[in-house]
Amino acid sequence: MKSGRIAQVSALSYALAISVFFFGTITAMILYPGYDPLNNFLSALGARQSSIGKQPAEFPEIFNITVIIAGLLWIPFFPSIYPLFVDKVDSKGFWILTILMSTLVGPLLITIGIFDAGTSPDIHNFWATRLYATILISSMFWGTNIALLDNTSFYKSHKWTGDVIMSGLIVVLMAIIFFAWIPPVPPFSLFKIPFYQKLVAYTYIGYFSVVSKRIFQEAKGSSIDLIKDIAFD
What we know:
Elements: H1 2-30, H2 60-74, H3 77-86, H4 92-114, H5 121-148, H6 161-179, H7 193-232
């Protein structure tokens, strides 16, 4: 029951992280004069001062504080859900790697909020690249792990094929970003790399909101069942 309670709290923490990220970044876009969501990178929202090719944001701390808070709220979620999965898998090591990579997204968000694209462009770009590489690996691992789950796992009672599809979509979008090659066919050719950067960020974070909801419901149900068992023994 203790692990179930922890999973519930961490799922709520993740839901709050999502809310902070969406609200904060969209607010930063609205308050940035001339910001073009289709052609400007997210990092431009947090530039505290101008650098080569970048203008300082009107209110950079909105973005920077947003990603720092979202990163802090992100960290507890993945370690707390590990016990819910490991009983139904043969390879715990693969799940450990998945949890580690997914958790690492939180500290990397914090880092890019501290080292912004204007004041510390080289450091910012270094960690931003690592952030997106981590998202890529995390997505690949998560989709693979879900597909390999035993059919008796609680997660297989949900529409788990959507996890595999979404993970695959994120991997495809990440390939576009890393290789800077946009397929010359609609709808891909209608957008530039900055659009795909945002699409990956919002898709990845939004997708795991569905995961956190499932985890919360499972953890809540497990706690209730255990309480009933104790009460009626």
